Amino acid sequence: MVTKLLLHICCGPCALYPLRTLRTAGYDVTGFFYNHNIHPYQEYGRRLDSVVRMAAMESLPLIIHDKYDLDGFLKNVAAAPEKRCSYCYASRLRAAAAVAAENGFDAYTASLLYSRYQKHEEIRTLGEQIGRGFGVTFYYEDFRPGWQEGIRLSKELGLYRQQYCGCIYSEKDRYLPNGKSV
Questions:
Q1: CATH number of the domain residue 87 falls in
Q2: Is the pTM of this model over 0.85?
């Protein structure tokens, strides 16, 4: 029996390996892009374009919640930037669970589970809790073993590959020497 699965996609390159793995396992996958945390706006646009290109190349149905919300993001994380990842995980998983429940998906998951830089146990715990609240199952799979394969595939397809997680704080961590303020 094929299960309808909604895959929250943070970016095109990170979705490739999970998408192909899920399809090989027999899942009927639809992508979902909602990443209000990505900043600056030009980076958000590059990632959205990359997801649209990847979805076309992979014949992936795609739901896009196109919302750039710098003000909302900062309002929720500025007081405690060290906790920003928890906010990002929860807000995006909540949006994915809502879309999954509203559209009759059997389960939902996230391409965040592909990254070796993300907090998998926190994502799993939040995904399961939020899923219960919406009456939809959170599907957990550790996609990290496919890290190199995903990089190879994304380069092969010519997808834009970002250099930081997405938020303005992760951009600072990536590009400011030693993460120190200027």
A1: 3.40.50.620
A2: yes
